[in-house]
Each structure stands twice: as C-alpha cells, then as structure tokens.
Write a structure and sequence with these properties.
Strand order of the largest sheet: 2-1-3-6
Helix content: over 70%
Distance between the termini: 32 Å
Radius of gyration: 26 Å
Order of helices and strands: HHHHHEEHEHHHHHHEHHEHHHHHHHEH
Largest sheet: 4 strands, antiparallel
Number of helices: 22
Strand content: under 5%
Shape: elongated
C-alpha cells in the first residue's frame, strides 16, 4: 500500500501515460486520412473506433476481477462514461465556440472577411453578436447523438418495477441483453453513417487541414501530400517525365482541383501582398519552396510559358492551381546545390517579410519532405501504424491500474468513486478530442468549426454505443447490477439539451456560455437526485 504522495504520483503518472496514449492514437488515425483510397474506411470506422479505445478500456477493466469488488469499481467506469460524455459536450464545446467565434452581421457570419471579430466589443455585444455556424453535418451529428441514447432508456426500465429486496442484477439481466443488442446495432448503424459521410467527402476538411499542417511542419511536400489523391482521382498517368508543352495546358480533375485549391489558398493569399489574386514568377518560386518543392527558375519559366497566356508576368489563383497540378504530376530531379543555396538565401529574406505580419515560422525538418512522393507516403503510413500500435498498447497496459488508483483515491478522500472518475478520467482518456477541437475551431472557418463540433458529437455517439455496450455485456455476462438512475438521467438530459441547441443555423457565444454552465450543474443534479433516493 502506498502513501498519499505515492498515490498522487501514481494518479499523475497513469493519467499522463493515458493522455499520451490518447494523443498517439489520435495522431496515428489522423495520418491515415491522407490516403484517399482508405479515407472512407478510416474516417468512417477506424477514427471513431480507436477514439473510443481509452474510454472503453477503463470501462472494461472497471467491471473485471472479483464479483463483489467489480460491483464497487464499476462506479469508476460509469463515472468515466458520464464524465466523458458530459464534459465533451459542455466544456470543450463551449471553448470551441469561443475560439471559433466570428461576428454575426444580420443573418450572416463574417467568415469571408479579413477581420473575423471586431475589436472593442463589450461583453454583452460579444455574447449576443458573435458565434459560429452550425452546418448541416453538425445538425445531423446532433440527431444521431440523440438517437443513440435508446439503450439508456432500456436499461432503466427495470428500475420502475423492481421491488425492494429483489435482486437488481437478476431483474436487469434480460433488459441488459436487449440494451446490448441495441447498442451493437446502434454502433454498426453509426459506423455505416460515418462511412457514407466519409465517402461523400464530409471528412475532406479534416484531411486537408492535416495535409496543410504536415506541409507546414516540413514532414511532407505538396507532391507527397497529393500522391495518393492523384492515384485515387486522376485516371491519367500519375507521373510524367517532364512538363507538357506550351500547346497543352493540362487541367486537373475536379476532385484533385478541390484538394489543391484548399491546400494552397491560404498561403497564396499571404504571398499576394497587393490582394489582386495574382503572383509574380519570383513569388511563385518562393511559394513552392514553402511547399517543399525543389523547383528551379527554369522550370518556373517553362510553366509560365504554358499558363501565362497574356504574357503579363503574373498568374491568377486558378492558373496557379493548374501549375501545382503539373508540378505534382511531374517527377523532377533535385535542384543542383549551388542554385538551391542561392534560392534559399532569397527565399528566407522574402519569407521573413511576408510572414512577419502573420504567425512565426520554425525551421522545417527536410528528411521526409525531400524524399520522392511515393516514399513520403510510405513513411507517413509507417508512422501512422507505429503511433496506433504504441498508443493502443499503452492504453491496454495502464487502463486497469488507472481504475484501481481512481478507486483508491475515492476511498482516501471519502468521496464516491463515481465523482472522482467523473472529473479525472476524461482529462486523460479524452485529451485528444479536447485538444483537436480547440485547434480546429481556432482557425475560424466554417469548415474548421464543423470538424471541431462533429468530433465532439462523434465521441458522445461512440460512448452511447461502443462504450455502453461494454457495460451492458458486463451486467449480462457477469451478473453485475446497473444502479445508476441519477447518472443515466443526467447523461440523457445533457445529450438532448446540446442536441436541441444544434437545431439552429447559428450558435451565439451566449448559448455556448449556457452550455458551459451545464457541466457543474450536471454534478449538482446527480448529487441531488441521489440524495432523494433516485438510485
């Protein structure tokens, strides 16, 4: 037995390991999104399933072991389930709205304006006249989230007719089996809906953000990012030996053009200093260097001869997308070292001037980005599967000890285990969703806030199906009792409250503040219901 300081150390250590494991699983699964041929399977099945692994592991281990001890530690798993669902739908949700808020002007939001939030607003004006867009996918995610609460209603039916003195576990067994079947049906249905949405391109925004981040970090070049996109959506030869002649102006397929436009648009605007939607020859050379494409001045001259039809010395955005298409389709030799060094010197000077008004930049590692496109993709896939394997192994190793530590903490501080895990478990197991939602929301675009809020809705739906099915299986096969009426009612109320809040097209910052207040109120509600005998 360890002392108080040792227990705190174990809690922090196990929590940190699960936090890192959750991030590794999230990063690895996100990297697989860069493979369009797997994107439907990854976005629809792999991402939701792996995202639920940390929570599911805690819940599973909470119901194993000696039957009497398992009935006690099951409270830890229920606390993790309730805390995960309620926390994700309140705290990160509200913070995402706050981070992604833009001005509300009449019935429109200021996503297309350079100034997204007008400075100097009062608190009341900020609450009322800033907010985020609630897109159709977010509304659909809210509906799915509410539908998947059906098993909670089923497992609560015995609570209304079991009389004092009767075995709770025996009375719940058949209902637990029915709830388990419904959970599994809901789980499969949810994955099918996700798979359909992914194949329709609903996860394209997240995939593009991943590409942009990897390019910016120097982990991949533009050609590397687009390699599998070309394989999937371009029926022409994937790699040409040289650029087309000036008589030929190859046009990218529509899907390829969409990806290229989304990847390069923001950086194109940064280089377009006079805001005329054109770039000069030198600016394009530097731009492509930021995309980690070793392109020479002679190659830029060749491309200009093809696409600069009016010989004006500049290229508009649509023409530039076509230039990028030619570049990623063409297998080029590296630039000679002496020429590359000269271009690098000019590039650093110009980049410093361009970026000084935006964010700071870091020195980019070139070990992967300098590889051929095929090898870049292979390196990323290897990294993705490595991260997934390590993250999953850590979860399986440390979930059981974490349950025991949470149980011991509850005993030491004389607080029911439910409340301890309600607060602490989500901080470790759901860290990746919390961090990702804030990251995407802060980009302040309609697509990024959609990605952010859908990730939180998806995590809640997985808790309602995959994670709850683990509890129903424990109750049915191990003969444990589900004695958590107050917790069940609170989970369902929070899900429906947030779900109905997504019915409108705009969520104001005021609504987000109300959602934030739901988290502490949910704890009060559970404690109050238990105090009057709901369990």
């Amino acid at each position: 037995e360890v002392g108080t300081s040792g227990l705190v150390w174990l809690l922090m250590s196990y929590g940190f390991v699960l936090f890192q494991a959750s991030n590794l699983i999230s990063q690895g699964s996100d990297l697989l999104l860069l493979v369009p041929s797997l994107a439907g399977l990854v976005g629809g099945v792999v991402l939701p399933l792996l995202g639920a692994v940390p929570d599911g592991a805690i819940m599973l281990f909470s119901g194993l072991g000696d039957i009497e001890k398992a009935q006690e530690t099951l409270s830890v798993g229920v606390g993790a389930l309730a805390g995960s669902t309620i926390m994700l739908l309140t705290v990160p949700w509200a913070l995402s709205v706050f981070a992604g808020r833009v001005d509300i002007q009449g019935d429109k939001l200021a996503y297309g304006l350079k100034t997204k939030v007008t400075p100097g607003k009062s608190i009341c004006e900020t609450m009322k006249y800033t907010g985020v867009s609630i897109s159709d996918p977010v509304q659909k995610g809210g509906s799915i989230m509410m539908i998947t609460t059906i098993p909670y209603f089923l497992i609560q039916i015995p609570a209304w007719y079991i009389k004092p003195g009767e075995s709770v576990a025996a009375g719940e067994k058949n209902w637990a089996l029915l709830a388990l079947v419904v959970c599994l049906i809901g789980f499969v249905w949810y994955l099918v809906k996700q798979l359909e949405g992914s194949r329709q391109g609903e996860d394209q925004a997240k995939r593009v953000e991943m590409m942009k981040d990897l390019i910016k970090a120097g982990e991949i070049s533009l050609s590397g990012a687009m390699n599998d996109v070309l394989k999937t959506f371009d029926n022409s030869d994937i790699r040409a030996s040289s650029y087309q002649s000036a008589d030929e102006t190859p046009q990218p397929p529509q899907k390829v053009k969409e990806y290229l436009s989304l990847i390069v648009r923001d950086l194109f605007r940064k280089y377009d200093k006079n805001q005329d939607n054109t770039l000069s020859k030198m600016e394009i050379t530097f731009f492509l260097r930021d995309m980690h494409e070793d392109i020479s001045e002679d190659e830029v001259d060749t491309l200009f001869a093809i696409y600069d039809k009016d010989n004006g010395g500049t290229i508009c955005f649509d023409e530039f997308v076509c230039i990028c298409y030619s570049i990623v389709k063409t297998q080029r030799d590296p630039i000679p070292a002496d020429i590359s060094s000269e271009v690098d010197i000019m590039h650093k000077g110009m980049t410093a001037n361009i970026m000084e008004e935006d964010e700071e930049t870091e020195d980019m590692p070139e070990d992967v980005a300098s590889l051929p496109a095929e090898k870049q993709q292979a390196a990323l896939k290897k990294k993705a599967f490595t991260l997934l394997a390590i993250g999953t192994a850590l979860v399986l190793l440390f979930a059981d000890p974490m349950v025991e530590v949470l149980q011991e903490v509850a005993v030491r501080v004389n607080i029911p285990p439910f409340y301890v895990s309600f607060i602490l478990a989500p901080l470790a197991s759901n860290a990746s969703e919390m961090i990702a939602s804030q990251y995407y929301a802060a980009k302040k675009t309609k697509k990024s806030i959609t990605v952010s809020l859908m990730a939180l809705e998806g995590a809640a739906s997985m808790n309602n199906t995959f994670c709850l099915s683990i509890f129903m299986a424990l109750i049915y096969f191990r003969g444990l009792a589900w004695k958590y009426t107050a917790e069940t009612v609170t989970i369902v109320l929070v899900i429906y409250f947030v779900g109905f809040m997504t019915r409108g097209k705009v969520m104001t910052t005021m609504k987000a503040l109300i959602i934030l207040c739901v988290f502490p109120l949910s704890i009060v509600l559970i404690a109050g219901m238990e105090a009057v005998g709901f369990d």
